[in-house]
Amino acid sequence: MKSRTGVLLGRLMRNIMRSPDTIITVAITPIAMMLLFVYVFGGAINTGTGNYVNYLLPGILLMAIASGVSYTAFRLFGDIKSGLMARFITMPIKRSSILWAHVLTSLVSNMLTVVVVILVALLMGFRSSAGILEWLAAAGILGLFTLALTWLAIIPGLTAKSMEGATAFSYPLIFLPFISSAFVPTESMPKIVRAFAENQPVTSIVNSIRALLNNGTVGNDIWIALAWCVGIMIITYFIASKVFKRQLG
């Protein structure tokens, strides 16, 4: 399975490398949002921190990933409509390798996008006091978040009737950070909005990454973040696997 998954992964990564504008396109909107909020709104937002880009970056990274996973649905839908998926199924390869190749491609491409966004943030003044272990922990959370959303993206990639339908799921995900602690502390929100913000996955994930990168106290947020990521990943993995077997098996 590993070698066959590697071959399929290589095919998808070559397609991305031939068109690196995909990664750039995914990064453009989050970077634009970061520029807008830091240089236009940042002076009017009180987060209790001296450097707003340090506060903002974790949420921007999640927006970039939410945008990037839509290309997984796009590529998977394209493989199905072109008949390539049907050819793969007739070949002597484990069928789960087909999906895992798309998932791993999403992980690699989104991590590249994350690096691009962080480099821009550094140019804007982002600084971190985190050590190597904290950076690795933050990268691990981002990786789990990417895997969870990618398995979610597999489902519309398999079931959509049009290219637009395959990628439409990502729009609510991209804007979910706006109703979280990504841009402003939840304490400043009205009660109903605050209740939603504090009990949705983005807030705990953002708080965990922010604490790790800024040498803060992570507390229970990291366990809540991990529970959200792992829970979403497990549920969407089983749903995607069943859909795949039913439609193409």
Q: What would you report as the Rg, rounded to the nearest angstrom?
A: 19 Å
Structural class comes to: mainly alpha
Beta-strand residue fraction:
under 5%
Largest sheet: none
Our measurement of the CA-to-CA distance between the termini, rounded to an integer number of angstroms, reads 17 Å
What is the number of helical segments per DSSP (H or I, 4+ residues)? 12
Question: How many strands in all?
Answer: 0
Mean pLDDT: 86
- Following the backbone from N to C, one meets helices and strands in this order, namely HHHHHHHHHHHH
Helix content: over 70%
**In terms of per-residue confidence, which ranges show pLDDT below 50 for 5 or more consecutive residues?**
none
Overall spatial form:
elongated
Q: Return the domain count.
A: 1
Characterization of this structure:
- The chain has 249 residues and is mainly α.
- The chain has one domain.
- 77% of the residues lie in helices and 0% in strands.
- The protein has 12 helices and no strands.
- Helix 3 packs across helix 11, helix 4 packs antiparallel against helix 6 and helix 6 crosses helix 7.
- The longest helix is centred in the middle third of the chain and has 29 residues.
- The radius of gyration is 19 Å and the shape is elongated.
